[in-house]
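Predict the 3D structure for this chain.
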Amino acid sequence: MSQASRSGGSTRSISFAMLALALFAGAYLRFTDIGAREMSADEGASWAAASAPTIREVLRAQNHLNPGKAGLHDLALHMWMRAFGERLTSMRALSAMVGTLAILLVFGTAREIFGVRLQSDESVGPSSDQRDEAAAIAALIFAVNLITIKYSREVRMYPIVIAALVAQTWCFFGALRSGSIAAYAGVAIFTAMALAAHLTAVLAFSGEGLWLLYVLIANRVDLTAIAVRRALALALAVGIGALMLAPLAPAVIGSAAHAADIGAIDWIKRPAPWAPFALFNKATGSFAFPVMVALAVWAVIRGWRGWRTAIIFALLWMWAPPLLMMIVSYAIRPAFVERYLLSCFVPFFLLVAIGIVEIPRQSARLGAIALMVALAVGHVVAWNRKPHDAQWLEAVRAATTNSGSDGTVAVAPGYATSVVVYYLSQSRPAPLAHPASADGIDPASVAIIGDQGVAPATAAALDREYPRVLANLRGVVVRGR
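Done. Predicted structure below.
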């Protein structure tokens, strides 16, 4: 066996060992103590929709409880709950499982992206071993990063959004490389799935649209070029995926518009001009972010010739969605929210992985990988040491003790009623919960008021209506008349 063959085999073994480590560490970080934090108000909405008795009623309920979504996650959770029950750990396990699967999808997608080249001067591109190594590094960074972990530990739709978008990107580049009918079908199916999970998935497709435009320009819109024909076919496949949701679109868009009209997203503030940069800094950690930026810049400088196709696509995918969200926030209404932009971190990790692979010495590459993992895990540990959940369970207990003969509890903000109902269902007999009214005619003797999501004027009115503080808890207060 030649020295090159032995070296290639060794590199491949290291790559797949890193992938195995990514899957193990990712699963551990997503599943361990998954029920430690209390249910959030948003999780309560997902539980309430999924707990409806039939699929039709799930879709009807989620349209009210989770406006702007087509209900894919709530349907999946509905079936999951039938099999595994409604305990908080059981419900969160669905997100943790999908989040772990996404690690494998990142590896496959990265390897596919790294294998596509459009320019003739990219003929000397990364070898198969380099693609394996970079893909494994990207999967490992994805697996241990807080931004991908914390949303995989909630009863929400975001892990499904990320998994569907990454799978769609895998098929997207598979179709560009091979022109396979199965790949085009995958693009359409996963486009529909991503949009059905959350409409903000359309932001990720803005990067793909710019990428297809780049392919057309790079090939001078030459319809005889295979890349141009495949790019046009890809645009058609994405459009077909979007059209699959056409029957649901009026209801979904209507519910989102209604939610905006009644102030359901008034808590979103207009972002600062530097918000896109702050997004990546805050999410990856103040210590890890400068190192990651340095590696990403090194990827562009050192790897431009061999990895140009992957670098251009990663930059478009990384920056198009947050910049588009900034335009919306300033031109229409504030909408810049971290969880709406989660998929943008995948291309950032791809750039970091390329930067590590482009470090000449293997010992330095291994050191860079160890540093990245250590900084990411340190960020997770630091985040876990602080409480981030509101004490809805303790609030429900205090409210139940003081609810009086009327047997009702008022809840503010109104969308938090579901989490209160979830915890009330564990009490026998349980009082009824309903959204609080600040007009002075609410029949409840006790109100549970969250710190977030309540307008200042409403909070002041509820304080007057319920002047006695019965329990002052983390993220929530219980007040009585």
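The beta strands are 408-412, 432-435, 446-450, 468-473, 476-480.
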